[in-house]
Amino acid sequence: MRCPRVAIFDLDDTLAESFQPPAPEMVERLGKLLEIMPVAIMTAAGFPRIKDQFISHLEHSPHISQFYIFPNSTTECYMWENSTWNVAYSLGLSESDRETIRKAIRETIAESGVFEEHPIHAPEIIDRDAQIALATLGLEASYEEKRAWDPDQAKRKKLKAVLEKKIPQFEILMGGMTTIDITHKGINKAYGVNWFSTKLGIPTGEMLYVGDALYPGGNDEVVISTGIQTHEVSGPPETLTVIEELLRTCTTRH
């Protein structure tokens, strides 16, 4: 692996199992990585979850200013300045937009037939103001159930196709193993990567993105167009291996 000057990580099914907290070892190794380069998390999850699961363990690090958070599918960015977390930008959805999206999701759930064919857990709509997500198996399904439900993305591709006809004015992407994320058109992880590159003054080609959804239609795939280095992982154990390799090979601070 070519040593990058910046490392960016997806969260669910990359740093942690979907909707679960990360292993303590993962947080500890991220803290070590902060000592040698800027690190960002780009995720569909909201800022409160990241604050609880990562920031609370890392914010006493002398290198915390190297940590950047892009929650809600990069519709927002948080950075550490003047001893507090500040919003660098926020591109929230209006209430009218959110209601349009929620209505389209409810109709898609009813019309697609996906959930009648494969009932396991009831789907849930997760509204985070800046982004709305369809958790197809809700929040309580086990890792094994999620992994088995849509291994080839066929079910979510069907849902995505219906949603794209109903609300073509929004960005619709598949995340992790069971989620569909919806934001403003053009606001996705590629937007976040390009903004971050400009902010740091570091070319995208000298940055690394690590995620599990770099497959066609996945919410990580869009970063490829930026020219960033990418590394697809199958889950947190492989991500930990990538971080260990970065710690071994990137021995000087950038």
Automatic annotation (TrEMBL):
<dbReference type="InterPro" id="IPR005002">
    <property type="entry name" value="PMM"/>
</dbReference>
<feature type="binding site">
    <location>
        <position position="12"/>
    </location>
    <ligand>
        <name>Mg(2+)</name>
    </ligand>
</feature>
<keyword id="KW-0413">Isomerase</keyword>
<comment type="pathway">
    <text>Nucleotide-sugar biosynthesis; GDP-alpha-D-mannose biosynthesis; alpha-D-mannose 1-phosphate from D-fructose 6-phosphate: step 2/2.</text>
</comment>
<feature type="binding site">
    <location>
        <position position="177"/>
    </location>
    <ligand>
        <name>alpha-D-mannose 1-phosphate</name>
    </ligand>
</feature>
<feature type="binding site">
    <location>
        <position position="128"/>
    </location>
    <ligand>
        <name>alpha-D-mannose 1-phosphate</name>
    </ligand>
</feature>
<comment type="subunit">
    <text>Homodimer.</text>
</comment>
<feature type="binding site">
    <location>
        <position position="10"/>
    </location>
    <ligand>
        <name>Mg(2+)</name>
    </ligand>
</feature>
<dbReference type="GO" id="GO:0005737">
    <property type="term" value="C:cytoplasm"/>
</dbReference>
<keyword id="KW-0479">Metal-binding</keyword>
<feature type="active site" description="Nucleophile">
    <location>
        <position position="10"/>
    </location>
</feature>
<feature type="binding site">
    <location>
        <position position="181"/>
    </location>
    <ligand>
        <name>alpha-D-mannose 1-phosphate</name>
    </ligand>
</feature>
<dbReference type="GO" id="GO:0004615">
    <property type="term" value="F:phosphomannomutase activity"/>
</dbReference>
<dbReference type="GO" id="GO:0009298">
    <property type="term" value="P:GDP-mannose biosynthetic process"/>
</dbReference>
<keyword id="KW-0378">Hydrolase</keyword>
<dbReference type="InterPro" id="IPR043169">
    <property type="entry name" value="PMM_cap"/>
</dbReference>
<keyword id="KW-0963">Cytoplasm</keyword>
<dbReference type="GO" id="GO:0016791">
    <property type="term" value="F:phosphatase activity"/>
</dbReference>
<protein>
    <recommendedName>
        <fullName>phosphomannomutase</fullName>
        <ecNumber>5.4.2.8</ecNumber>
    </recommendedName>
</protein>
<comment type="similarity">
    <text>Belongs to the eukaryotic PMM family.</text>
</comment>
<dbReference type="GO" id="GO:0046872">
    <property type="term" value="F:metal ion binding"/>
</dbReference>
<dbReference type="InterPro" id="IPR006379">
    <property type="entry name" value="HAD-SF_hydro_IIB"/>
</dbReference>
<feature type="active site" description="Proton donor/acceptor">
    <location>
        <position position="12"/>
    </location>
</feature>
<dbReference type="InterPro" id="IPR036412">
    <property type="entry name" value="HAD-like_sf"/>
</dbReference>
<keyword id="KW-0460">Magnesium</keyword>
<dbReference type="Pfam" id="PF03332">
    <property type="entry name" value="PMM"/>
</dbReference>
<feature type="binding site">
    <location>
        <position position="212"/>
    </location>
    <ligand>
        <name>Mg(2+)</name>
    </ligand>
</feature>
<dbReference type="InterPro" id="IPR023214">
    <property type="entry name" value="HAD_sf"/>
</dbReference>
